Amino acid sequence: MPHLLFTYGTLHLPRVQRLVFGRELPSAADAVLGYVLTEVEIADPEVVATSGSAVHPMLRATGDPDDRVEGHVLELDDSELAAADAYEVDAYRRVEVPLRSGRTAWAYVLAGDGSAGDADYEAIGTGYVRYRRPDPAIAAALTDALGTARSVVNIGAGAGSYEPRDREVTAVEPSATMRAQRPADLAVAIDASAERLPFADGAFDAAMATFTVHQWSDLTAGLNEMRRVAAGPCVVLTCDPALLDRFWLTEYAPEVIETEARRYPDPALIAELLGGGVVRAVPIPLACTDGFGEAYYGRPEALLDPGARRANSAWSFVPPSVHARFERELAADLASGRWDRRHGHLRTQPAFEGSLVLVVSHP
């Protein structure tokens, strides 16, 4: 399967391409959105020799869709993408970025705060706790799934949402931005990733992961580690990509739904990789306090707030034109009454069965 790679520095140079890929690659001009350029000094002598420079440009996320960096898009095969990864130094990490053309592509960006996966929480996570507060009904479903476990590891813990206060919780979170937003009454999170947990086998009674597995760079490795360190249940709160189109957002921003569907793994696969388990639907309350997309199923006005959208990482992968069109068309339909004629019953519907699910696996 071909991979698109946005280049803005030395990888676009024909000499570097011949050394890294063994050939010169065709390219198309494009621009990445939500980033600006900075510079990094390279110490790796092999990279300096290949590129001919010790100072390389670097993409830094700003979260502002009006910021853009011009460059070119290359089409790579699997081995060439691996070669590009080997060429870039540790100061870079590869993430998926939105392009002016409406496409998405891989790009090497400033490693930043250590965020795992394809979203940069240094750019989009600063207001997270304002919009993403744990919902009591969803928390109750998680608590029930954890059973009698006393010690719990929370993997990809973020700002601490859904960590049970009545248990001994060890939190793991690679993003410094998210760790800094954890409430004072929670334990300090360990800087580590799901794929390499620094714990002994069976170190915890249970393991939990909420809204995080789609960010893991290696799902299989992360779930294997989750199963390894948990003597009891593994509980994963996630979304079923096959059910995302139940949400009316697909009428206004199908690109966001498509992005989410591409990123979220099949819950049945999660259960299989954990050694077997069950997938349970989790109804979303009308007044849900955890502002993931479907939480606003009956409160459409709330999604006109850019901060609410920024707290959902999928919106960071679509171009500004999608944001602008969404705001314009939804605002118009709310003003005319069209949204209410089609979906007004949702304003009083107590709960919504959308894509939210719990995967529960016992050893």
Q: Could you write a compact summary of the structure shown?
A:
This protein is α+β, with helices and mostly antiparallel strands and 363 residues long. The protein is 30% helix and 23% strand. About 2% of the residues have low confidence.
Radius of gyration: 21 Å
Total beta-strand segments: 15
CATH topology descriptor of the largest domain: Rossmann fold
Order of helices and strands: EHEEHEEHEEHHHEEHEHEHHHEEHHHEE
Give the distance, in angstroms, between the N- and C-terminal Cα atoms.
35 Å
**Which strand order do you get reading across the main beta sheet?**
9-8-10-11-15-12
Strand proportion, as a percent range, falls in 15-25%
Counted by DSSP, the helix tally is 14
How many domains? The number is 2
CATH H-tier superfamily of the largest domain: Vaccinia Virus protein VP39
Integer average pLDDT = 87
Structural class: alpha+beta
Helix content: 25-40%
> Which regions contain 5 or more consecutive residues with pLDDT less than 50?
121-126
Shape: globular
CATH architecture of the largest domain: 3-Layer(aba) Sandwich
Biggest sheet descriptor: 6 strands, mixed
Question: Given this structure, which CATH class of the largest domain is correct?
Answer: Alpha Beta
Descriptive labels:
single chain; 363 residues; alpha+beta; 2 domains; 6-stranded mixed sheet; 3-stranded antiparallel sheet; globular
